[in-house]
Amino acid sequence: MTQTRLFPLFLAALLLVVLPACDSEDPEDPIAGEEEVISNVNITLTPVGGGAAVTAEAVFDEESVEVSIGALALTAGTTYNAVVVFTNRFEDDPLELNEEITEEEDIAHQIFIIPEGATTGSITISNRNDDSAGQPLGSEFTLTVTANASGSGTLRLVLRHYEGTTDTEVVAQKGDDLTPTAQEIPEVVENDVNFVYPVTIQ
Amino acid sequence: MVLLPRCSARIALAVLSLLLSFPVLAQDRASLRSFSGTVVDAQTGTALPGVNVVLDAERGLGGATDEDGRFSIGGLPPEAFIVRFSYIGYEADSLRIDLQRESVRARVALDAISAVIAEVVVEGETELLEQGAQAVSILDTEALEDARGQTIGETISALPGVTALSTGPSIAKPVVRGLHSDRVVILNNGVRQESQQWGAEHAPEIDPFAPDRVEVIRGAAGVEHGVGAIGGVVRLEEAPLPTQVGEVSGQLSLHSFSNSRQGAGSLEMEGAPLPGLGVRVQGSLRRAGDARTPEYVLGNTSFYERGANVTVGLERSRWGVEAHGSVFATDLGIYRGSHFNTLAGLDAILERGEPAVTYEFDYEIAAPKQDIRHYIGAVHGYVDLGPDGALRVEGRYSFQQNERAEFDADRIGGRDPLEQPAFQLTLQTHTLDLKTRTAPLAVAGGNGFAVVGVSGILQRNLNTEIGYLIPNFRAYTGGVFARAEWVRGPLALEAGSRVDYRWLRAFPRVRSGSGFVERVVTDYAGWTGVLGATYRLGTAWSLGANIATAWRPPGVNELYSRGIHHGTAQFETGTPGLGPERALETSLTLRHQSSSLELEVSGYVNRIGDYLYLRPSDEYIVTNRGVFPEFIYTQDDAVLVGFDGGATQRLGRFALGATFALIRGTNLSRDEALLAMPADRLGLSAGIDFGSWGPLRDLTAETHLDLVREQDRFPTRLDEDGSVIPVDYVEPPPGYALLGLDLGGEIAMGPSVMRLSLSVDNLLDTRYRDYLSRYRYFALDPGRNVVLRLALPFGA
Questions:
Q1: Which residues contact A20 (CB under 8 A, 6 or more apart)?
Q2: Average pLDDT of span B547-567
Q3: Of B237, B359, B226, B241, which is closest to residue B292 (Cα–Cα)?
Q4: ipTM for this prediction
Q5: Are residues A40 and A195 in contact, defined by beta-carbon separation less than 8 angstroms?
Q6: Which chain B residue lies closest to A61 (C-alpha atoms)?
Q7: B626 and A32 in contact by Cβ < 8 A?
Q8: Which of B412, B467, B517 sits opposite A97 (nearest CB)?
Q9: DSSP string, B512-566
Q10: What is the pLDDT of residues A154-165, one digit of tens each?
Q11: Confidence (pTM)
């Protein structure tokens, strides 16, 4: 019976010795849980005839939730050379992501800019660039604002990826429309990015 | 990859050496048993009244047969006995019975002194009357053999009141009386299974070939099972180890499933190299390709599963010690069409309701997929102290490591999804249980015993550098309990109480997008209690009444999760201030057990205060992939009311069976139905025993019909456009009926007997969707499945 009574003491002593010894291994590392997300999307619009570039940045957190989205102030009657850049600020090389999207050949991507709201008729997109395989990409394009236009609306930015086991399959799905017409089918085509920038035209 | 950090190894070693220096613990089999049956004249078959049945004269354990030759001795300790039957004018006879696992019924035939042949028959049936005041269903070795090759969740879903929450063919979670995941405790060979069990698509990591017996306790249960058993307890047990030195024995099982072209096999070997020293080794393998519905192949639903178990035990007259180790690994594919990243993607799927592309059958496991490993090491032992073993001290220590890696269908930028998991979690759990139990004592004119115990759990969860599904955390849980049982004549009483405390330190992300984590400490305390009574009405009927209260602290997912769930297109948000939920369940169970009829019917009311669930906030979260409906972990009062049960009637060669379950779950605070409550179901079966036919023995055929009604009670929410839609997007699928057929038989092969069975599930290839199938939005449930099972025992 002595043994029985000693046992809880044994246990208590053991836990006292062992538990504090573990505390040094707190899982507190701030690096833990880095996410592969598109955390920042920057759009830069440079007026063709010279002048200051217009930029806007959209910022998202680790769970892809909106933190802030910058607005674009455009001038009527102006033509801009536009560049879209995707980055992940949680990665050591934030720009690596952009290279993969714009240069990746295995799975094709396409970027669409769609004017919505009051800007629908005032903004036109043209001259979308191609990827390294010669397929439409859209990370660079020309944006033209109609003369005498004014008001505010939005510019929707969509990044799509297309899946297929061969280039032919991918190309067949990609198409060359200015808007993403095909319905999203996760096995075939899906949006990686889809949000709007507020736009004002003066 | 087994990661045993230094501190874990230190604890494991310290506890191991402690247990070895003090042979402790064991089997959680503290329930009182009974021994009952009839004694007849071997020649004439007439009942013999007044036969002395003596189990242990010193302890006064025994009885005598009644006018009909029947005897029933209850309140027995779970031990082995040599029972002596004696009667004037007849040869006395002895019989060894083992009550360690279950109560025993026997039919004993005594020879008149002049007669020559003695015959003793032990039927070894489970005596449900002594299962306590709660509804309990059991799958014994034979029933398990007939269901082998399936997941544990599927296997037990045949029991009344149990359904499976499935995510395709490889993931099935047991739902007991409408509750699952953290609300159902799974005891795997005595060890409380600890993994990422909060996830609806995280199946129990258990080798389905390892258990020899499965017991499901329905309803809030058990002061000995720790925190969380609000819905019930699933207890999986291996057979007792052999103790007699003899030939090595074992069994080879092979299974083939036509639907997914699954092959499965298991090899088990056991023996006792020295008296009292038993060893068992078991290994299994399951490999399946893509499952098929009646119309199409479900792309990427293949899986590959491996398991290995080793148990070594030493049994002495006053003490015993057992060590157990197991490894379980599974790589399983997730149906490609169920993984989507945008709400538009989900809408398109819901509209279509079937795959968008035609999949070809294969065995390849591509992304999305889960890779899971589960390791368990456990030591248990017991020692009987005092005169006649008046006190048994038991102890069990276990270490578990659960590793879960989930791979998304895609990675951004077109990176290879199989190269790196979207998240990877490692959960380590140390558990220590100590308890001491008295031998049955004569108390107040009856027999009773008491158990007291303490337990401690130490847990930590670690994310890798990439991905953060639920935060890293460390938790300590400690509890103290006491329980007593008392039997007098037809009445058995049970009472138990338990107090637990849980301390949790978690490292959730700061919600600012900075990438940093914060440190949050919370703690919870709660009380668990049970009060039960069973009353025997005659020899066959009994009535049990039970009141139990149990609690569950909020899980780390409920407190801190935040993100899009790619299987549901929901943005799930945890609520850091949540408190525990508490259930109060009252149940009434009627049982009948005789040679021709077995019946159990149970009714219950389970009221859960501060029930934790995901509630639509009617807000939409803006992300870079569009907007998602937000669901927030919330607490409300809820009640679950239901009836469930089953019966088997034997009529000579024929047997008719039925099982049923009805459940109504209501959110009392908001007066609406609870989400994902199992639909009403009724199972009917009819079987015939053909006996022998040529070299075949024990030939049986059974047909069964499962009827499931449409679930018409479900909660709703506001859609983005303000319209009212079901919380989970679409209305529950219509009801369905499934027909099945089982044929079985045995063939003598030299000294051993090979068992063969052929089953057909979904015989008519019926198109259906079960409400609790998480693929129901995307595709039909699997079609016809022809299963061939072969079991070849060898050795003793």
A1: none
A2: 91
A3: B359
A4: 0.84
A5: no
A6: B513
A7: no
A8: B412
A9: TSS--B--EEEEEEEEEEEEEEEEEETTTEEEEEEEEEEEEPPPHHHHH-EEEET
A10: 999 999 988 876
A11: 0.85
